Amino acid sequence: MSFPKIEAIRNLSEKELNEEIISVRQKIFELLLKKATKQNIKPHLFTHYKHRLSQLLSMKTEIKIKEQ
């Protein structure tokens, strides 16, 4: 499974971007909860979701800079 490309989120509106950020944070939280309760998880998903979150937050910052 490869990392998602940032080009996939360049066309999102600010509202869609915020919704995606919330969704990814929720997925990370759910993984942490499963890890804490010793359920089966795929550890590589932490890396993928964190990478995706950093892309989304970078794009959000980029949009804020353009607005100024």
What does this structure look like?
Belongs to the universal ribosomal protein uL29 family. One of its GO terms (biological process) is translation. GO terms for molecular function: structural constituent of ribosome. It is found in: Plastid, Chloroplast. Keywords: Chloroplast, Plastid, Ribonucleoprotein, Ribosomal protein. With 68 residues, the protein is an all-alpha fold. The chain has one domain. Helices cover 69% and strands 0% of the residues. It has two helices and no strands. The protein has helices at 14-36, 44-67. Helix 1 (14-36) packs antiparallel against helix 2 (44-67). The chain is elongated and about 45 Å long. The relative contact order is 0.20. The mean pLDDT is 92.
Q: Main attributes?
A:
mainly alpha; 68 residues; elongated
The pLDDT mean sits at 92
Number of strands: 0
What kind of sheet is the major sheet?
A: none
Kindly provide the radius of gyration, computed on alpha-carbon positions and rounded to a whole number of angstroms.
14 Å
Which blocks of ≥5 consecutive residues have pLDDT under 50? Answer: none
What's the helical proportion of residues?
55-70%
